[in-house]
Amino acid sequence: MKIDTLIKELNQRIDKAEIDSDVEEVGTVAEVHDGIARISGLSAVESSEMLLFPGGVMGLALNLEEDAVGSIIIGDASGIKEGDTVKRTKNILSIPVGEKMIGRVINPLGDPLDGKGDIESRDNYLLEKKAPGVMEREPVSEPVQTGIKAIDAMIPVGRGQRELIIGDRQTGKTTVAVDTILNQKGKDLICIYVAVNQKQSKVARVVKTLEENGALEYTTVVLAGASDGPALSYLAPYAGASLGEYFMDQGKDVLVVFDDLSKHAASYREISLLLRRPPGREAYPGDVFYIHSRLLERAAKRDKEHGGGSMTALPIIETQAGDISSYIPTNVISITDGQIFLETGLFYRGVRPAINIGNSVSRVGGSAQIKSMKKVSGRMKLDLAQYRELESFSQFASDLDQETKQSLDRGQRIVELLKQPANRPVPVGIQIALVYAVNSGFLDEVPIQEISKWEKDLWLYLESSHADLLDKLVDGWDDETEESLKQALYKFEKTRT
Question: What residues are labeled active site?
Answer without folding.
Answer: 363
